[in-house]
Specification:
CATH class of the largest domain: Mainly Alpha
Keywords: ATP-binding, Helicase, Hydrolase, Nucleotide-binding
Number of domains: 3
Radius of gyration: 27 Å
CATH architecture of the largest domain: Orthogonal Bundle
CATH superfamily of the largest domain: PCRA, domain 4
Order of helices and strands: HHHHHHHEHEEEHEEEEEEHE
Shape: extended
GO molecular function: 3'-5' DNA helicase activity; ATP binding; DNA binding; hydrolase activity
CATH topology of the largest domain: PCRA, domain 4
InterPro entries: DNA_helicase_UvrD-like_C (IPR014017), DNA_helicase_UvrD/REP (IPR000212), P-loop_NTPase (IPR027417)
Structural class: alpha+beta
Helix content: 25-40%
GO cellular component, one term: DNA helicase complex
Strand content: 15-25%
Protein name: UvrD-like helicase C-terminal domain-containing protein
């Protein structure tokens, strides 16, 4: 591969593409020679400056490239912090540490936050609450396991490992629709492992989600629309529900409109007062 970068002509790579490969080869050779002359921070910042990656991302007007800009800065800052602890380290030392570092290495029970990890890396650990995601046939268990008994059993053992990491409660999550590898959405089928758990140990929690839109400003000052899907409620209201409001007291839902964060309810309270409220802010409580 390195020979092709140096001389792409035999591979019939010519013109602008060929010139780009030759330039890339020279860049690799140059910084390989600088490895022994510059420390990790100097080498990384010199490379970033020469290729102009920060300037490129800063000129863009989309959120994805703004995130990439922040990611490059984060890498440079991480190298600086690594050097503060080990002033004489090389870029190779930094890369070696990063390749071995996982969330588990920095996890401790004194801090209250969510730790993300694979099922394999969770072995031997326990947590009060565990969330297992992607529990769909074809994902967990993997598609290849559906026709291979031995692989299916290994997947089932992994599921057992994940399930038993929980000390108090475990949430089992699956998607009814999922987009994979940029392809069209396909219907998700709950994992057979979930269905194998006796119902008396399960509680089904239904919820709704909605697309939310937010106007944001990029680093260059451009205005963009940021869209994301959020869970809006775990307990949908319906007409006829008895509810309680902190100020207006008890009432009955007479009308519903909208959905998600924009859902509104019309409530007739006991004293004859009628109010239209936005569910997101009203903090209504159902009365059984």
């Amino acid at each position: 591969m390195f020979d092709v970068l140096k001389n792409p002509e035999p591979m019939k790579i010519r013109g602008k593409q060929g010139d780009s490969l030759i330039t890339f080869h020279k860049l690799i050779k140059k910084y390989n020679q600088l490895l022994s002359k510059l420390n990790a921070s100097e080498l990384a910042r010199a490379l970033v400056e020469e290729v102009g990656i920060l300037k490129f991302y800063k000129r863009q007007d989309n959120l994805e490239d703004n995130d990439r800009y922040d990611n490059v800065l984060e890498i440079l800052n991480s190298i600086d912090e690594f050097m503060d602890r080990n002033p004489e380290v090389s870029i190779a030392d930094f890369l070696e540490e990063v390749s071995l570092l996982t969330d588990i290495d920095e996890w401790n029970t004194d801090e209250n936050y969510v730790t993300m990890m694979t099922v394999h890396s969770s072995k031997g650990l326990e947590f009060p609450v565990v969330f297992l995601t992607g529990l769909e046939d074809g994902l967990f268990p993997l598609s290849i396991a559906l026709n291979e008994k031995e692989i299916m059993e290994e997947e089932r053992r992994l599921f057992y490992v994940a399930l038993t990491r929980s000390q108090e409660m475990v949430y089992l999550l699956y998607a009814t629709d999922r987009r994979r590898s940029g392809s069209d959405s396909w219907g998700g089928i709950a994992s057979r492992f979930v269905k194998e758990i006796p119902e008396n140990f399960m509680e089904n929690i239904s919820f709704s989600s909605a697309m939310t839109r937010k106007i944001v400003k990029t680093k260059t000052g451009a205005i963009k629309m940021k869209i994301k899907r959020t869970i809006t409620t775990f307990d949908d209201f319906k007409v006829g529900d008895l509810v309680e409001h902190a100020i207006f007291g008890e009432g009955k839902i007479m009308a519903l409109s909208g959905s998600g964060e924009n859902q509104r309810v019309g409530v007739a309270f006991k004293d004859g007062l009628k109010k239209k409220l936005i569910v997101k802010f009203a903090k209504l409580k159902k009365i059984s």
